[in-house]
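Regression test attached.
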Amino acid sequence: MNRLVDLVDAASITQMVLRALGLVCGGTALALAAGTGAWGWQWPFTLVGAGFLVWATARPDAEAGLGLCCCVVLNATAGHPTLTTAAVIGIALLAAHLLWSACAMTPAHGSPGPRLLGLMALVGAGLTAASVLVDLVIVALPRVGAGAGLMVLAVAVISLTVVAIVLLADRTQMPWQGRREG
Amino acid sequence: MRPTPAFVRALGGAVFIGIWAIVTRRVDLVLIGVPLALCAGLALARGPRVASPSLSTSSTRIHEGQGVELAVRSGTRSVTSIAWPATPGASFVPQGAALADVTAPDRGVTITAEMNRWGHYRLGPAVYLVTDILGAYRSTGLLGGVDVSVVPLVEASAAQARLRHPIGVTGQHTSTARGDGSALADVRPFQAGDRLRRINWRVSNRTRALHTNATFTDRDTDVWLVLDTLAELRGVDVGLDEGTSSLDLTVRAATSLARHYLTAGDRVGVHDLGSTVGALRLASGPRQFTALSELFAQASASDRLRTSVRRIRHVRSGSLVFCCSPLLNDKVIDEVGRLVGLGAQVVVVDTMPPELGSLAELPRRRQRDELGFWRQAWAIRRAERDAVLDTVAQLGVPVVAWRGPESLGVLLTSMSLADRAPRARRRA
């Protein structure tokens, strides 16, 4: 409780907004996972996950979010989410993860600059698009009769392509690449 | 350079979900873990690419009210967050002096520190945190502090006052001695050796005898700025960094007076009664003003109350002495009397903050004051001091409250009036 009171006193408005959005995204993932099965099996994981969620909101620069991921997956295991729901849960977890990362990058009483917010949005959008692409491949390949080996190979190729594109795009902005003056 | 909890979270989450999905043979669990796995994979592929940041400042010597830009850049494109510690007298933009943004060798995180008060400031050391774009690796540390000198504002005036006894040979002050000058002293009959251009033709025509204009000589003088820095006084309900203190008024008045008399070609020196600012020998010219500005820019006011007074040892008779003081210390009042006794033309510049002890600040009847009886106490102290000021004025020492640049004109006028005013006779 003291930690939360300190947080309200010290954190800037932007920090509070980022943390609130993280809380919403993490809560969405937890709620979606909890709503797919019998409540009798899921309530312990939901309660523990909610605890981790509050902890992660108060201390974004901590590994508390890992506990939330575990609770969400255990909840989903107890239930039977559709593939679309599962993909949405994964993206919600990613959003919460990125928001907590942005909070951890910023001093508690400071705020992230507009360039940082823009870049974080870009990274989030890129990762979401790549995730959707990979999800589609994972869902589509078994339906066209591909075996497990081919599926793993396709996912690996797509993942490596995404990583390579991001790395190449980033490398062009490295200082030693030599930006031509004039 | 070390992995962040965010990286542990993404990698740990992806590994746990992946293993759990294989164990349970569930495709939906794989979909939950894909975004985190991509994030962790990207961070692993990029590796730690964080360089130590460097600090640069726009200037280390500014005037009151100006700001210093503190820019932090990093060698590679990364996210840098910086937090400066609070510094008394400095205000930061953005507030809180903390900011995080994308930095590169040609682009940095810039925080502006605005100094509202003269003196020497030590900003920092600042805490920095550099992370890569995904927040997977980071490096933290301290950035060395920055020394900033703030020169007090100069309030110039073109007013001029006549000195009682200028002691130099040449200059701009009209003396009482006759000789070459510009101020008319008398019209007298022509004598052998008088310059022809001094002949007053109108009077000569009227009187049918040659008459010439006699003038007073123009001379310079020694100007001493005596600063009372024994204590720093502020309004009762004014915070440490707010408002104008007696020391601020003292320094601003001294700077304006120095500028005025150095421009007129006089020799100006500084004597500090409280050893807070420091002393400066008599000298003239723009170089002396630079030295004086440097003296004030390097000073750092402290809340330490000083009790011993450093007396002026040598003052030539006829020197002009400006004593900038709130006149609350008996030793300072004694020093003013001693200077008058030594033959100096003394002017007291009252640097007591106007809001301190003001009757207008007193709480109304039945109105509860959170500060207790401090306001009433200071009102009584100001009333006592006013009686002392009257006594000082009766000795022929003008007392002028410093309220900004317009005070210089009032002060110079008071000097001229005080010369002609009746004064109390000094008894042995």
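Expected vs. actual: identical. The longest helix of chain B spans residues 374-394.
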